Amino acid sequence: MLKTNIIRNFIRVLALVVSGGVALTPLVGNADGHYDGVVVNILTRPGPVIAGRLVDRAVEFQEMTGAEVRVAEAPFAELFQKILTDWATGTNSIDVGVFASGWGVELVSGDLVENLDSYLAADDKIDLADIAPYFRDFNQKVSGSTYFITLDGDFQMLYYRTDILEANGLAPPRTWEDYLDVAAAIHGQDMNGDGEADYGSCIFKKRNAQSYFAVQSVAASRVQSMGTSEGIYFDPATMTPKINNEAWRKSFELYKATGEYGPPDELNQDIGDTRGLVIGGRCGLALDWGDIGPLSIEEGSLIKDKVGAVIMPGSREVLDPATGKLVACNANTCPHAVDGINFAPFAAFGGWTAAINKGADDNVKQAAYDFLSYMNQAAQSNVDVTMGWTGYNPYRNSQLDNTAAWVAAGFSQAAAENYLGAIKESLNHPNMASDFRIPGAQQYTGVVLDRELARYLAGEITVDQALANIEEGWEEITDDFGREEQAAIYALSLGITN
């Protein structure tokens, strides 16, 4: 019942915003710009990734303003629930949550997040026009109003060892079948000169971590072909899951097959473990967010100027939603295809984003906003995204259009152009697949999809059982939140307005 009420609240707020019935009054911080004695409590994932740079910038911000910004950490699998519980119960021990952008819609639906439109209107430093449209107009907004501040731009790409593929006369994979072929051809070669056999493919597959993002990158190009507004999860009119079909079945099978060319303990590896192997020169191919680029130039990396990035592999066959079958890619079924291949780069996670607790003290909220604006501004973020350890990936146009900062950080000119080019190709793709941005997002994927995928990878259940279980679990979550309400919000998340 709580969830149903939250959704109803959300629909009511949407109606007020659309009709202009909400009066937005800018909140004013201390006139001199200082917040002596003000404490802002932030909760995010364990550092140094994400949390570490928040801590660093908090020190600077306190020196400038007097505000003390405290950064607390929670395990990834527990982060969202801790924030939701704290804000929904009125405990309000957390002033700012930093989490996956898609998770925030559930908080907005409960009227738990501060609307930032008035703050932005009074902010002459954040430079919204410089934030890439996808992050500015999609990740930060719900129904046209801004509730979140982007700290990181996330979607996944394919990385490959340029030297290894060149030595074997191979091109970077363009389809997932190509991926398996290339991985098979180079698996077992010594890729870092230590005399040991290395791996054709490295993909994180640990349960209760981030494996469920990777499998969606494999599935996206088979499930979505008509553009971002099609979506990869549901029929937007009925909220019937688009999961138990040939496209997802083939994707699960391909994802599992990559393990034949990966580390023997891949099912126990999270993203940090995989990145260690990649930077140590042990992976011919890898799936990751934008972090590999900056990590490749850090001290101790064995792949500096030896790694390339490309848009995520695509598919020559796509889902027919009416039948659940795979059909050949052609001008009608794949209008955005290139050379008969449908690409659908997946905006996995969407980026680490920050939301301010609506129940916080007004002065705390203003100080929190000023800190988040400081983090987001180009003067700070254009530096932060070039350092791999921070976990922050590019999201501003100035970060993507100018290689100077990247070269200054240690990239060669060619590596910087390749890395930023792959990001721009993905980010600007008309068939980019969006992550969940509806209430229950973390439950749909972080619980149900993750659990059944892990059981399938471990050999506990068949692929058909896994997909049927996911379908059943998603239907239950949808019914719990309210089917009509979820359908309305899902349509909005895809840009469908009628």
Give a short overview.
43% of the residues lie in helices and 12% in strands.
Protein described:
The structure is a single chain. The chain has 498 residues and is of the alpha/beta class. 43% of the residues lie in helices and 12% in strands. The protein has 20 helices and 15 strands. It has helices at 2-19, 51-65, 76-88, 104-109, 117-121, 133-139, 162-167, 176-186, 211-223, 246-257, 271-279, 292-295, 362-376, 378-384, 397-401, 404-409, 413-427, 441-457, 463-481, 483-493, and strands at 39-44, 68-73, 96-100, 141-142, 145-146, 149-150, 157-161, 199-202, 283-288, 307-310, 317-320, 325-328, 346-347, 352-356, 433-434. The strands form 5 sheets. The protein has a 5-stranded mixed beta sheet, sandwiched between helices. Strands 8-9-7-10 form a 4-stranded mixed beta sheet, sandwiched between helices. A two-stranded antiparallel ribbon has the order 4-5. A hairpin with a 2-residue loop joins strand 4 (141-142) and strand 5 (145-146). Helix 9 crosses helix 10 (246-257). The chain starts with a helix and ends in a 5-residue tail after the last helix. Mean pLDDT is 91; it is low at 1-31.
Reconstruct the topology from this structure.
Elements: H1 2-19, E1 39-44, H2 51-65, E2 68-73, H3 76-88, E3 96-100, H4 104-109, H5 117-121, H6 133-139, E4 141-142, E5 145-146, E6 149-150, E7 157-161, H7 162-167, H8 176-186, E8 199-202, H9 211-223, H10 246-257, H11 271-279, E9 283-288, H12 292-295, E10 307-310, E11 317-320, E12 325-328, E13 346-347, E14 352-356, H13 362-376, H14 378-384, H15 397-401, H16 404-409, H17 413-427, E15 433-434, H18 441-457, H19 463-481, H20 483-493
